[in-house]
Design a protein that fits this description.
The chain has two domains: 4-106, Roll (Ubiquitin-like (UB roll)); 109-240, Fumarate Reductase Iron-sulfur Protein, Chain B, domain 2. 35% of the residues lie in helices and 15% in strands. It has helices at residues 36-47, 81-84, 109-117, 140-146, 156-160, 162-166, 173-183, 191-198, 212-216, 223-240, and strands at 7-15, 21-29, 66-69, 72-75, 89-93, 100-102, 105-106. The strands form two sheets. It has a five-stranded mixed sheet with strand order 2-1-5-3-4. It is elongated.
């Protein structure tokens, strides 16, 4: 006979159609060193094979397993049940601020579309025929650029952002952090293009500096600091006129 201490009560979001859904309850056996992704996998493999979710590496490298766990955005592969469960209960839902495709799988297109809108792509400053210029990794500017390059596009910061929740057009922390990296990258030839893009409506000046993006980033990046940098640089750019 299984005791209550050996069982987790898990509520999982199930999408019933394009607009609505509901939480479904499952009882899952506790295991040592169990992660939230282990829980989701157990449910899909043993209790309901129709449960839809996304994962890949299982070691915190890809970010594809990100979900809402008890109301907080997390990598489920790196989140241990013993730290996330409250009174033996878990609630697992798809990342907020993104359209739900099915169950725990969200549509990432709006997230990546905003990277494009923020000009978060490299703008060449040379051709393949030019000599490669060494990058001095010790400069202050390169240090700033390096601070954001470990972003793996998991959208945790995007799901954590209340500004995105209130304004679906806001570019969001990840796109703006990428823009800040490019502004400080001496190899990028589009600094003014980037600053122009992020200073438009729904850009960096919409950020309320609440800090959820930085608080929840699993890679311990600081999007709020990057956005503050963009605010300063766009203001300087305006003053030049």
């Amino acid at each position: 006979m299984t005791s209550k201490d050996d069982v987790l009560s898990v509520s999982v979001w199930r999408q019933t159609d394009d607009e609505t859904g509901t939480f479904q309850q499952f009882d899952v056996p506790r295991q040592e060193s169990q992660t939230v992704l282990d829980i989701v996998s157990y449910i899909q493999q043993n209790l309901d094979s129709t449960l839809t979710y996304r994962f890949a590496c299982r070691v915190g490298m890809c970010g594809s397993c990100a979900m809402m766990v008890n109301g907080e955005p997390r990598w489920t592969c790196r989140t241990h049940v013993q730290k996330a469960a409250v009174d033996g209960k878990l609630q697992i839902a798809p990342l907020r601020n993104l359209p739900v495709i099915k169950d725990l799988v969200t549509d990432m297109d709006p997230f990546f579309d905003k990277w494009t809108k923020a000009e978060g792509v490299h703008h060449p400053s040379a051709t393949r025929h030019d000599a490669i210029v060494p990058v001095d990794t010790t400069t202050a500017q390169r240090t700033i650029a390096n601070e954001g390059i470990e972003c793996i596009n998991c959208a945790i910061c995007y799901a954590a952002c209340d500004t995105v929740s209130g304004n679906g057009d806001y570019l969001g922390p990840a796109a703006l952090q990428r823009a800040w990296t490019l502004v400080n990258d001496e190899r990028d030839g589009g600094h003014e293009t980037v600053l122009d893009a992020v200073s438009q409506n729904d850009g960096c000046h919409n950020c309320h500096s609440m800090g959820s993006c930085t608080h929840y980033c699993p890679n311990e990046l600081n999007p709020m600091k990057a956005i503050a940098g963009l605010k300063r640089e766009t203001a300087k750019s305006w003053l030049k006129w």
